[in-house]
Amino acid sequence: MKSIYDVIRRPLITEKAAIQKDAQHTVCFEVHRDATKPEIKKAVEALFDTKVEGVRVARVHGKVKRQGRYSGQRPDWKKAWVVLKKDQKMIEFFEQA
Question: Which of 5, 62, 83, 90 could join 74 in a cystine, given CB atoms 3.0 to 4.6 angstroms apart?
Answer without folding.
Answer: 62
